[in-house]
Amino acid sequence: MNAWQTWIALWTLVTKEVRRYMRIWPQTLLPPSITMTMYFIIFGNLIGSRIGPMDDIPYIDYIVPGLIMMAVITNSYSNVASSLFSNKFQRSVEEMMVSPMPNWVILAGFVIGGASRGLAVGLIVTVVSMFFTDLSIHHPWVTIGVVIMTALLFSIGGFINALVAHKFDDISIVPIFVLTPLTYLGGVFYSINMLPDFWQGVSMVNPILYMVNAFRYGILGVSDIPVGGALVAIAVFIVVFFAVGLWMLDRGKGIRS
C-alpha cells in the first residue's frame, strides 16, 4: 500500500469506530454523563460542603479534574476492548489482517476511535461540571496534552485486553478488578498529602495518580507530584503499550488458533 492508501485505510477504520459508538449514543455517551452528575451532586455538593477546601481549593473544584479523567479512562478502555473483541468474535479482524493494510494501521484505527469516545465523554462531563462550579484552565496545553495521551494509553490497554480475552466476561475483569481500584486510589477524591508516609509511597506506584495530578495541574495549577515526570511517564507507557499491542497483533496472539 502506498501512503495515500494507508491514510484512506486508517481514516476508514477510525470512521467506522466513531460511527459505531455514535449510533448507540444512548448507551455509550449518555450513561457516563448521568453517572458523573451523581458524583457532582453527592460528592461535590452534599459531602464536599462538609469536607471543606482541599489544598486551599473548594472541594468540588478539586474533584472535577479527577472525575473528568476517570470518565476518559474508563470509556477509552471499554470502547476498544468491546469493539475489538466483537470483531474477533465475528472473525472480521482476520479479514483485516490478510488485507494489504499494515497491522499498525489496524491498531492505530481502533486506538484513535476509542480515544475519540473517551475525549467525547470527557467533554460532556466537563460541560456538566459547569452547572456545579466555575473552572478556569491554568495551563491549557498541559490539560489538552494529558487528556489526549491518557485516552490513547487506555485505548491501547483495551486493545491488548481484547486480544488476550477468550470470552466476553474476560473484557470486564480488568476494568472491574484493576482500573476501578486504581482510579479511586489515584487521588480523584483526595490529596495524597493527607495519607501517612507509608501509604504515600504505595500511592506513588499507581500510574493513574500521575495522570490525574497532571490533569489537575493543567486545570487548577496544583499537583501532588512533579508534572514533568508525569508527562514523561505517560509518554513512555504509550510507546511500550503500542509496541506490545503491535507485537501481539503481528503474531496473531489471541486471534489465530
Descriptive labels:
257 residues, mainly alpha, 11 helices, elongated
Walk me through this protein's architecture.
With 257 residues, the chain is mainly α. Helices cover 75% and strands 0% of the residues. The protein has 11 helices and no strands. The protein has helices spanning 3-23, 25-28, 30-51, 59-89, 92-97, 103-129, 140-164, 173-184, 197-203, 207-220, 227-250. Helix 4 (59-89) crosses helix 10. The two termini are 27 Å apart. The mean pLDDT is 87.
The poorly predicted ranges are none
Q: What composes the largest sheet?
A: none
What's the overall average pLDDT, rounded? 87
Q: Beta-strand level of the residues, as a percent range?
A: under 5%
Structural class: mainly alpha
Order of helices and strands: HHHHHHHHHHH
- The protein's oligomeric status is single chain
Helix count from the secondary structure assignment: 11
The count of β-strands is: 0
Please compute the radius of gyration using only Cα atoms.
19 Å
What is the molecular shape? elongated
What portion of residues is helical? Answer: over 70%
The N- to C-terminal Cα distance equals 27 Å
